[in-house]
Amino acid sequence: MVRSLTSTSWLFKKRTDYDRLGSDWKLIWSDLVKPRGTFRSGLVSTIPVPSRIADLRVLMAVVASAGAGFCQAPLPSARPGFEVASVKPTASADGRSLIQAASGRLTMRNLALRRMILIAWDLHDYQLVGDPAWVCSEYYDVQAKADSGASVQEMEQPILRALLEDRFRLRVHREKRELPIYELAVAGGGAKLQRSREGSCGDSCGFHLTTDELNRTLDGRGVTMEMLAGNLSRSYNSSLGRNVVNSTGLSGTFDLHLTWTVDALSASPADMTGLSIRGALQEQLGLKLESARGAVDVIVVDHIEKPSAN
Questions:
Q1: Residue ranges making up the domain that contains 31
Q2: Residue 149: what pLDDT?
Q3: 63 pLDDT exceeds 60?
Q4: 22 and 46 housed in the same domain
Q5: Is residue 115 part of a domain?
Q6: Cβ(128)–Cβ(298) under 8 Å?
Q7: By three-state DSSP, how is residue 118 classified?
Q8: Domain finish residue from 115, 149, 168
């Protein structure tokens, strides 16, 4: 900071400020001023040469301008989006839905707008709040093309988000809300779990879900209780409609096999053809679900509009 051009000036308060100048500017600086001292404690004292004061003013203006650049954040990268996109109310009359994503391409047919939002933000059904009723009842067809280098995950998430924000004027924000949840705990008779042998599953560790009408079969190899709780949180898998958190206190990895009937939660006992998810967990794995409340990450819809014609 220059205090006076006719007296001793502390032009650089820190040596790092001087070091930031390029070599060409350092040469100009050396020509404009005569150093009276040396860098001590990060400071330099200088006396400007009177005949070059005008030049010094020019230099200081340039230095000030350049210094401002050091504080500027880099410009954000270009926002992802589609090169070409068509969004129309669904024309399908057969009730079948289709989601097909490939590198640079995305096709959605007969899909509820709410389902698209869940996919774009990677949400469970209970994590989307504040959306109007028509978001759940209106179905759309989407045909979109993006850069050929875009991955499937990019097509289904950041690029789909950009499309929804553009065509539906969708605006959302994230927050945590206290909601009903389930705690996965060990049942009274103790856990009935088989521990995994180290390296037994190799690259195939994880879950495999098989569906047959309303029946579900979940096989897990080398999975933790945290992973099981996360899998049970998925509405399509279990129809629980709540976040599930691990409260078993069990560490390590396990191999498991679980079968249940999806609609058993709402069916009457006479209609049940298989165990509910609760019954299957207790009978087959020695685990139980306990109702509780806890903080859940949600997406809140602030604004959304029906799309205009393409």
A1: 15-70
A2: 77
A3: no
A4: yes
A5: yes
A6: yes
A7: helix
A8: 168
**What are the beta bridge partners of residue 143?**
86, 107
CA distance 282 to 267: 19
Planar angle of CA 50, 52, 55, nearest 5 degrees = 140
Assess whether 292 and 188 both reside in one domain.
yes
Residue 41 counted as domain residue? yes
Domain shared by 98 and 197, yes or no: no
Strand pairing class (194-195; 139-145) = unpaired
Total tally of structural domains belonging to the chain: 3
- Spell out the residues 6+ positions from residue 259 whose beta carbon is closer than 8 angstroms to its own: 215, 216, 217, 218, 274, 275, 280, 284
Q: Strand pairing partners for 177? A: 296
Q: With a threshold of 0.85, does the pTM exceed it? A: no
H-helix segments, the chain: 15-19, 23-32, 53-70, 113-120, 134-137, 152-156, 158-167, 225-233, 235-238, 277-280
Contact partners, residue 54, CB within 8 Å, separation at least 6: none
162 and 190 belong to one structural domain? no
CA dihedral 161, 167, 171, 174 (to 10 degrees): -20
Single out the residue in 168, 196, 211 at which a domain terminates.
168
Q: Is the pLDDT of residue 275 over 70?
A: yes
Residue 209 and residue 144 in one domain: no
DSSP states of 184-245: EEE-TT----EEPPTTSSGGG-EEEEEEETTEEEEEEEEE-HHHHHHHHH-HHHH---SEEE
Q: Which of 240, 257, 221, 251 is nearest to 296 (CA)?
A: 240
* pLDDT 10s digits, 161-207: 999 999 999 999 999 999 999 999 999 999 999 999 887 787 789 99
> For residue 104, what pLDDT band results from cuts at 50, 70 and 90?
confident
Specify whether 41 is located in the same domain as 131. no
> Could you write out the DSSP letters of every residue in 60-87?
HHHHHHHHHHHTSPPPPPPPP--SEEEE
For residues 159 and 185, membership in a common domain is answered with no
